Amino acid sequence: MIELLSREYPAPTGGKRSIVISILFGLFVGFFLLFFEPFEITEQPYKYKTLKILFFGLISTIVLIVFLALLPEFFPRLFKNENWRVKHQILYYLLILIIISTLNGLYINYLENLAFSWANYWWIIKRTVMLGAIPLCFLILIDHNLKLTKYLNLVRELRLHLNNIDKTSFKQKHKLKSHSDFKKIMIDEKSFKYAESEGNYSTIFSQINQSEEKSLQRISLNYIEENITSSHIIRCHRSYIVNLYMVTQITGNAQGLKLEIENSEKKIPVSRKYIPIIKSFLSNQ
Questions:
Q1: How far apart are CA 42 and CA 53, in angstroms?
Q2: Contact at 8 Å (CB) between 195 and 221?
Q3: Fewest C-beta atoms under 10 Å: which of 126, 140, 210, 237?
């Protein structure tokens, strides 16, 4: 069990998708309480009763947007896949659940003009953990296994195509210009391995005489992507552009796919939206 909790799991990444999920979940909570009336709160003769009940859903939406969309955007170092495990996902979602329950409890006190009571608060928290923790852990573990199976199957498929790549194809040299002093930056496809984003800069890794060399350039990944149109040099992640001719192995876990590069200890992550591009390239080799 300890080994399972220590397995890799994709960290929250923020973005529009997280906001949409948060809104949909909040709507579900609000309308579930409104139509199924599972608690006594729905039976009270409140003025503007419908809006006051739907506000429970708004509380859930706001908390989820903060934790799933905003915090990963503002504190990306805390949400690195390299450090994120199943146990972190469980604890993070339990924290979200406790905060939502706390705010809902305070909201009920406000609606019913009740004074805050630690006894009532702990009752809410214990009930929340007892009712929510077990299904939450169960769902996360199931999701982990589904993701792991999906990516391992994909890895097996892509490895078959990886062995068929013709690495003797013609390779060009690309002249790019630095954003700051407009000096020329030469990217030779024969030696270029990958580029990693460093804010407004990019670190370019190359293979020179059997050793890896890197250079920090005042140039963005977007600019590199737009000006190198070779099909085997692609954006695979918001922070990486990779030369697929330099990929020696493809691995995967519940977090997704990773590319191992020739003569490099770095494993390049592949974002979900770029998987079809890599799959298409390898399939056509």
A1: 7
A2: yes
A3: 210
